[in-house]
């Protein structure tokens, strides 16, 4: 496991996340998310999503500033994962618009009108977004190295050498250099998830979506994955949207915590405020149940 | 069966059977993938066209289609096939229709999560199909393809009807010449079995390689040779599996 990672116990939120003040940035992350000015990066504008009669997201509005690490908490079925899946364009909103970096994600403007976006437009905007899944979803037909290089080579057009160099740096970051030539089925869940993190980062996304990334792991493997993510959160300015049930982890890495209930944000704030002194009774109830 | 009949007709007939099998298998494989992928297309018109192809060829007899190719097609279009070509095309198109069902089913069995991972990395549809879905579906396809290949081998006997001199044709000839049915047809049965057995063995190899290609450990050998393998070193090697 990545025992050589910096000690996460040392009050990480206090570290400034300006480029100068960053603790030593691992080489592999040096290029991650170059432009961070705190401006709005993600905007959900009156987004509604239904599955049949069930309203999952109800007229949802929220924004995330670039470089922020935002954790979504709330009871299951409250729509947290749906938000990540909408951002990844795995789902389409029924109503409302989503913008990423000022560009519409699911729509495009043609002749001054907003129309559903074409495949090409979606792919273009989507390149800024990476996602790590609960079940890792590595490609079983590719060895570890190729899992990471495949998209940089064939989507971003990197040369094979360049992509492999990038992949090896990332594998070092996640502590898996010795496993480059293995197939995913030969790795433990925790190792697979760390490869999946490296795979997402290899695309150098501005936004990283983490969808309950430790929920499918055996308890003893969770720490290794969270360590890697803490590392990334504390040393880069990559914008993170994180759905997790690991409240300590959320407290560690978040700038903002959004509490969801029945498809709406019912409360948001800094982790200190949210975890220590929430206003909304539903938040208190939820946190007392999970903490 | 007399010796000259055996050497002059039966042995060349075996070779013709092999050629027809391989030729129509290659065509059938191509058709399987084209139609199988088209049947999972997101464009309804493509799905519809491919579905029509599948229904038409599933619903027509390979033998009748072969006769049509050999005898009706020339009259209707003024273009004559070499008999063997007519046989290969008829078998290839027909078995390709069945094969398309295998491809479609195997593609469907690739978990949706793999598609999502492909989308998350911004692959295009074509890239996802080529780099993620087809390579993962392939090991699923090999065992049913093996069955179909054996069916196809046995189906090649139909070409004897349009006077392609395959081994069935030679056996019929021998029966007519010598008036003895038993030896000719017994030999023919055995010959088909041997060819089928060889094909199955070959496909087993393909399957092992396909499984290794997705990081699955191939099933341990269970044949007679496995029992002989008492050398622990060899066991350790085979357990190492995928390299």
Automatic annotation (TrEMBL), chain B:
It is a multi-pass membrane protein. The chain crosses the membrane at residues 12-38, 50-71, 77-98, 148-170, 182-199. SUPFAM superfamilies: MetI-like (SSF161098). Gene3D superfamilies: MetI-like. Pfam families: BPD_transp_1. Residues 209-243 are annotated as: Disordered. Keywords: Amino-acid transport, Cell membrane, Membrane, Transmembrane, Transmembrane helix, Transport. Residues 14-200 form the ABC transmembrane type-1 domain. InterPro entries: AA_ABC_transptr_permease_3TM, ArtM/GltK/GlnP/TcyL/YhdX-like, Ectoine_EhuC, MetI-like, MetI-like_sf. It is found in: Cell membrane. Belongs to the binding-protein-dependent transport system permease family. This is Ectoine/hydroxyectoine ABC transporter permease subunit EhuC. It comes from Streptomyces durbertensis. The lineage of its organism: Bacteria, Bacillati, Actinomycetota, Actinomycetes, Kitasatosporales.
């Amino acid at each position: 496991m990545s025992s050589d990672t910096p000690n996460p116990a040392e009050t990480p939120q206090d570290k400034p996340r300006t480029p100068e003040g960053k603790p030593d940035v691992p080489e592999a992350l040096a290029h991650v998310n170059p432009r961070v000015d705190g401006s709005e990066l993600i905007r959900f504008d009156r987004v509604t999503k239904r599955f049949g009669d069930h309203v999952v997201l109800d007229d949802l509005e929220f924004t995330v500033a670039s470089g922020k690490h935002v954790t979504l908490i709330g009871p299951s079925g409250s729509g947290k994962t749906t938000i990540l899946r909408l951002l990844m364009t795995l789902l389409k909103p029924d109503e409302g618009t989503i913008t990423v970096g000022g560009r519409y994600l699911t729509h495009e403007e043609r002749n001054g009108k907003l129309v559903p976006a074409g495949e090409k437009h979606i792919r273009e905007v989507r390149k800024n977004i990476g996602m790590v899944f609960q079940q890792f979803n590595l490609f079983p037909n590719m060895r570890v190295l190729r899992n990471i290089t495949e998209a940089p080579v064939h989507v971003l057009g990197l040369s094979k050498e360049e992509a492999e160099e990038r992949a090896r740096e990332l594998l070092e970051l996640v502590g898996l250099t010795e496993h480059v030539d293995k197939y995913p089925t030969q790795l433990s869940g925790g190792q697979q998830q760390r490869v999946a993190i490296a795979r997402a980062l290899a695309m150098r996304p501005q936004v990283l979506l983490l969808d309950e990334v430790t929920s499918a792991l055996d308890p003893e493997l969770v720490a290794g994955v969270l360590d890697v993510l803490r590392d990334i959160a504390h040393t880069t300015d990559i914008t993170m949207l994180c759905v997790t049930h690991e409240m300590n982890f959320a407290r560690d890495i978040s700038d903002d915590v959004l509490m969801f209930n029945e498809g709406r944000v019912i409360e948001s704030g800094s982790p200190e405020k949210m975890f220590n002194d929430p206003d909304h009774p539903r938040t208190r109830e939820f946190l007392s149940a999970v903490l | 069966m007399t010796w000259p009949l055996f050497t002059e007709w039966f042995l060349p007939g075996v070779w013709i059977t092999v050629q027809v099998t391989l030729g129509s298998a290659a065509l059938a494989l191509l058709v399987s993938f084209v139609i199988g992928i088209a049947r999972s297309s997101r464009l309804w018109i493509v799905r519809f066209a491919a579905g029509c192809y599948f229904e038409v060829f599933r619903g027509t007899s390979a033998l009748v289609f072969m006769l049509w190719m050999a005898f009706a097609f020339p009259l209707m279009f003024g273009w004559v096939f070499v008999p063997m070509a007519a046989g290969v095309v008829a078998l290839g198109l027909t078995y390709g229709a069945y094969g398309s069902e295998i491809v479609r089913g195997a593609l469907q069995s690739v978990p949706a999560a793999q598609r999502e991972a492909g989308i998350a990395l911004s692959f295009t549809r074509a890239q996802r199909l080529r780099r993620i879905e087809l390579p993962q579906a392939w090991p699923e396809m090999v065992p049913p393809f093996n069955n179909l290949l054996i069916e196809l081998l046995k189906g090649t006997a139909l070409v004897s009807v349009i006077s392609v001199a395959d081994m069935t044709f030679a056996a019929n000839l021998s029966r007519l010449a010598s008036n003895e049915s038993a030896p000719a047809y017994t030999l023919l049965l055995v010959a088909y079995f041997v060819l089928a057995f060889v094909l199955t063995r070959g496909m087993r190899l393909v399957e092992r390689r396909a499984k290794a290609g997705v990081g699955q450990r191939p099933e341990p050998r269970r044949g007679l040779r496995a029992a002989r393998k008492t050398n622990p070193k060899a066991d350790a090697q085979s357990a190492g599996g995928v390299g």
